[in-house]
Amino acid sequence: MTEQQTDILIVGGGPAGMMAGITAAQFAPHKKVLVVRPEADAVIPCGIPYIFGTLGGTDEDMAGRAPLLAAGGQLQIGRVESIDRGQRTANLASGDIIHWERLVLATGSENFIPPIPGTQLAGVFSIQKDYEALDQLFSTLIPKINTLAIIGGGFIGVEFADEIRKRGITVHIIEMLPHLLQAAFDLDACTAVEKQLRDHGVQIHTQCKVEALLPDAAGNKVAQVQIAGQPPLAVDAVLIAIGTRPNVALARAMGRPELAGDARFATLAQRLVEENSQALHRIMDEWAAGHTQAEIDRLGGEYGFAASPVYSEADTYGNEH
Questions:
Q1: What is the pTM of this model?
Q2: How many angstroms separate the CA atoms of 319 and 178, rounded?
Q3: Strand intervals (E) in 2-118
Q4: Among 161, 228, 242, 269, which residue's CB has the most CB atoms within a 10 Å radius?
Q5: Long-range CB contacts (< 8 A, 24+ apart) of 56-63?
Q6: pLDDT at residue 270 tops 70
Q7: Tens digits of residue pLDDT in 30-59
């Protein structure tokens, strides 16, 4: 067991943690900045879907540590298991102890797995932001798949579908909302994406709810997806990509209920999306009230925005689930 002192301790070495470390080191060069993360090799999260198609391997999506080191920060590989706020110490799984003056929690998120039967079966997976897990997925599971079902039509589901179909795999996207990417884009963008995917052979199932994942005859591996009101869909594997939740285990353990227990924190991203969407709709409604549909169409053609009908808040939120 060893003990060390740092001015700024950053727990987590993903994009947030690394950028926090780089920024702190640049603006406070007289301070010791230490980033601790469990992964020796980290990947670029937004590039993960492309590992399985365009990039052709996990090694092509590596996140370098050079910018942090060049800024004067330090990186340590280890897993922080507990934090003592009173003593200002972090205890690592190795038994090492780090004393800190300032603490940044950048522990990222964890995948949300829906409470449906069958998620524990072999062949059911979610995307982990971990080099070894992704490399094993790329080299072991993916080559055995002929038909893949993706539960969730958000960014991860859509990007993964478009990449994995390049390997000759039949892909089904299952989404509860009327359109893919509906939580992020307007109708014109959503339908354009759906058309592109269909043109490349991806099969899209919208307004569909997955009730269960069914096993094979041996009871060990996923073999079918049961969609409500439809015959079971035969598959070789299932990707669950319906969103993430903040990883607040450390915050909860160190006694920060305002970080771990506050519902506003747990749903911050969704709350911001909703508030921004409501504000945008109010602006659009006020603007549209002073223009005819012909004027909107003309301006859309002139400036390039979608000249579709302006939807009210009730229209939009009435379609949410």
A1: 0.73
A2: 8
A3: 3-11, 33-37, 42-43, 62-63, 74-77, 80-84, 89-92, 97-105, 109-111
A4: 161
A5: 57/138, 58/131, 58/134, 58/135, 58/138, 62/131, 63/15, 63/18
A6: no
A7: 999 999 998 877 776 777 777 776 777 766
Beta strands in 138-221 (DSSP E): 147-151, 170-174, 203-205, 210-215
> Using CA atoms, how far apart are residues 121 and 224, in angstroms rounded to an integer?
11
Q: Which residue has the tokens 């958000």?
A: 154
Tokens encoding 102: 């300032």
Q: Cβ distance 40 to 77 under 8 Å?
A: yes
Angle at 107 between CA 277 and CA 4, to 5 degrees: 145
pLDDT tens digits, one per residue of 63-105: 778 888 999 999 999 999 999 988 999 999 999 999 999 999 9
CA-based radius of gyration for the chain? 23
